[in-house]
């Protein structure tokens, strides 16, 4: 339906018998293959009938970009910015009513055996402390004698030895590695961070351990 009306669909998931679709009115190209989405909305459909519509306030700087299923029990709405970040978690109750709430404090993986705390937008120096308290230990990223870029060298000198590499151009991504009992965690930051701070977490991914 959204496509037929000229909207671009950016995500579609099913939850409790309803189809949840995110769609936007346009795209603005950015660097490194990124883009900014405009006029974003989220529609909840039942048999092609629109029951609920979620949209951003005109005064708000946050843009709706896409939706993803979150732990099979909720929908996570992501921003439509050049560097997408999660905005809110959406729930649908047994009666079909929709509610929007704060981001869940943790995200579970690997049959719920591994939990990653909410570290989005957090300086990596703070994020690593939160990860450690959740059972994720830093993994040495660049061994002595191996080539190292300038930014990685600075981070390692600051005690963040799990840095794996940094990009010196565009968004300035840096990657970091952590290990837990049931999985490995890769964290990506963006930028250089504010004065006297460290770059902020942009995203992360989890690789579950393969059972013996």
Written description of the protein model:
With 212 residues, this protein is mainly beta. The chain folds into two domains: 8-103; 107-208, no CATH class. It contains two helices and 17 strands. The strands form five sheets. Strands 13, 14, 15, 16 and 17 form a five-stranded antiparallel sheet that branches. Strands 1-2-5-6 form a four-stranded antiparallel sheet, with no helix packed on it. A four-stranded antiparallel sheet has the order 7-8-9-10, with no helix packed on it. Strand 1 and strand 2 (18-24) form a beta hairpin. It is globular and about 60 Å long. This is PASTA domain-containing protein. It comes from Pseudorhizobium flavum.
Task: Map the helices and strands.
Elements: E1 8-15, E2 18-24, E3 26-29, E4 35-38, E5 41-46, E6 49-55, E7 64-70, E8 74-79, E9 86-92, E10 98-101, E11 106-109, E12 114-117, H1 124-133, E13 137-138, H2 150-157, E14 163-166, E15 174-179, E16 183-190, E17 200-208
Antiparallel strand pairs: 1-2, 2-5, 3-4, 5-6, 7-8, 8-9, 9-10, 11-12, 13-15, 14-15, 15-16, 16-17
């Amino acid at each position: 339906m959204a496509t037929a009306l000229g909207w671009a669909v950016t995500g579609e998931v099913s939850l409790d018998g309803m189809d949840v679709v995110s769609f936007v009115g346009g795209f603005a190209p950015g660097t490194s293959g990124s883009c900014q989405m405009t006029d974003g909305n989220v529609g909840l459909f039942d048999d092609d009938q629109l029951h609920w519509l979620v949209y951003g306030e005109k005064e708000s700087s946050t843009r709706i970009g896409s939706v993803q299923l979150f732990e099979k029990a909720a929908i996570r709405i992501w921003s439509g910015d050049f560097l997408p970040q999660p905005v809110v978690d959406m729930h649908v109750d047994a009666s079909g009513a929709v509610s929007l709430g704060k981001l869940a404090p943790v995200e579970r993986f690997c049959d719920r055996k591994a939990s990653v705390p909410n570290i989005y937008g957090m300086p990596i120096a703070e994020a690593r402390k939160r990860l450690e308290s959740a059972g994720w230990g830093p993994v040495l990223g660049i061994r002595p004698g191996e080539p190292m870029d300038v930014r990685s060298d600075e981070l390692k000198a600051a005690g963040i030895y799990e840095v794996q590499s940094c990009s010196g151009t565009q968004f300035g991504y840096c990657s970091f590695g952590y290990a837990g009992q049931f999985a490995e965690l890769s964290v990506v930051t963006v930028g250089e961070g504010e004065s006297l701070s460290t770059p902020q977490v942009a995203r992360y991914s989890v690789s579950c351990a393969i059972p013996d």
